[in-house]
Automatic annotation (TrEMBL):
Known role: The SecYEG-SecDF-YajC-YidC holo-translocon (HTL) protein secretase/insertase is a supercomplex required for protein secretion, insertion of proteins into membranes, and assembly of membrane protein complexes. While the SecYEG complex is essential for assembly of a number of proteins and complexes, the SecDF-YajC-YidC subcomplex facilitates these functions.
Pfam families according to UniProt: YajC
Protein name: Sec translocon accessory complex subunit YajC
Subunit architecture: Part of the SecDF-YidC-YajC translocase complex. The SecDF-YidC-YajC translocase forms a supercomplex with SecYEG, called the holo-translocon (HTL).
Main localization of the protein described in the UniProt heading: membrane
Keywords: Cell membrane, Membrane, Protein transport, Translocation, Transmembrane, Transmembrane helix, Transport
Membrane topology recorded in Swiss-Prot or TrEMBL: Single-pass membrane protein
Length: 111
């Protein structure tokens, strides 16, 4: 009169299984959270950076990915010629330009 543990567990299990959509609900919720907290802000930031790079013009002061600050002398489709000091010009990929620095006399945006 010995019954196996599996048989006892099967007998104690509830009669009906939950619907399939309830089973997949946690995965859908995690995907939505991942989308709104990680992917969407990153895509927005990339879009802003792309717009900033397309708006580069002669005379803008920029910060490169290597930490160099200079003024743009010439811009074409893929390169920007940046003057780091008097008479010192370097050719940099536009994609390595991290930020455009506002002029020194400009007012902060939150004032």
């Amino acid at each position: 009169m010995q019954t196996s543990i599996l048989a006892q567990l099967a007998a104690a299990a509830p009669a009906g299984a939950p619907p399939a959509w309830i089973t997949y609900m946690p995965f859908v919720a995690m995907a939505l959270i991942f989308w709104f907290l990680i992917l969407r802000p990153q895509m927005k930031q990339q879009k802003e950076h792309k717009a900033k790079l397309s708006g580069l013009k002669k005379g803008d002061e920029v910060l490169t990915g290597g930490g160099l600050v200079g003024r743009i002398v010439k811009v074409d489709d893929t390169y920007a010629e940046v003057e780091l000091g008097q008479g010192m010009k370097v050719k940099a990929l536009k994609s390595t330009i991290v930020d455009v620095i506002p002029p020194a006399g400009a007012k902060p945006a939150n004032d």
